[in-house]
Amino acid sequence: MSTTPQLHLLHLQPDARLLAAWMARHQARHTRQSTDLGDALHGLLRAALGTHAPQPFRYLDEHRGLLAYTGLESQAFEAHVASADPLAAQALGLCLADGRQGYRLRPFPNQWAPGHELNFDVRVRPTVRGAKGEQDAFLHAVAQAGGPQGAPLQREAVYAEWLRQHLSARQGAERQPWQGAVELLDVRLRGFARSNVLRRTQAQAGQEREGKAVEGPDAVLTGRLRVADTAAFAHLLARGVGRHRSFGFGMLLLQPAG
């Protein structure tokens, strides 16, 4: 039986000007590596907090800032901030100009009773593994249904089914601690775009890792869920949903239902 993870909710207010400057400097230093916002925030969090960089995280916008789940409690987090890379910490808004804390950290519930209903909002990369590698789950479903001439499909319905399958235990496979955590009562597609996610190659001797931009679906799903397993739900929150969780995808944001 795995231990139920302790969670804290972290709120940062990254400095948009310093964030853009960091991305520009990174691009100038590493001419063979492109970068994007998710990759830049991932790099800054790693530079500031090392292996304790929180994930999953969600960057909302310049005004609402960044939210993340972390297993670090207040005193431990403060110690890591004190030894963080100063430029990265400043860009992330971890420290204010007068030395005060520039972040907010509070304990987050990890004991949700089975049957408890919550509204959720999550940004995901709904992809499946196909013959051509990682593919948009909707385009894959269209191809499976016979292509443009086949049965019409709704993107929202395909992504909702993708989410249900992702969160469910797979038949014949070992159940992961986060699977079977919830029952999805309602799923809606609130936003959709296509965006690039940076994939880095393995570093070769004497060479830098190269970055390759991979285009794919960028969806925001909202709806209502019912907690089915208390411990599994805590693991799901700590882990996040889907792939690219280190780059701004997969954080389940929760609100009271009603």
Structure characterization notes:
This protein has helices at residues 16-29, 37-49, 74-82, 86-92, 137-144, 155-167, 230-239, and strands at 7-12, 57-61, 65-70, 104-108, 117-124, 127-130, 133-136, 182-200, 211-227, 253-256. The longest helix is centred in the N-terminal third of the chain and has 14 residues, at 16-29. 29% of the residues lie in helices and 30% in strands. With 258 residues, the protein is an alpha+beta fold. The chain has a four-stranded antiparallel β-sheet with strand order 2-3-1-4.
Q: What integer value in Å does the Rg equal?
A: 19 Å
Low-confidence stretches: none
Mean residue pLDDT: 87
Share in β-strands: 25-35%
Shape: globular
Q: Supply the number of helical segments.
A: 7
Strand order of the largest sheet: 2-3-1-4
Approximately how much helix is present in the residues? 25-40%
N-to-C span? 33 Å
SS-based structural class?
A: alpha+beta
Largest sheet: 4 strands, antiparallel
The SSE order reads: EHHEEHHEEEEHHEEHE
Q: How many beta-strand segments?
A: 10
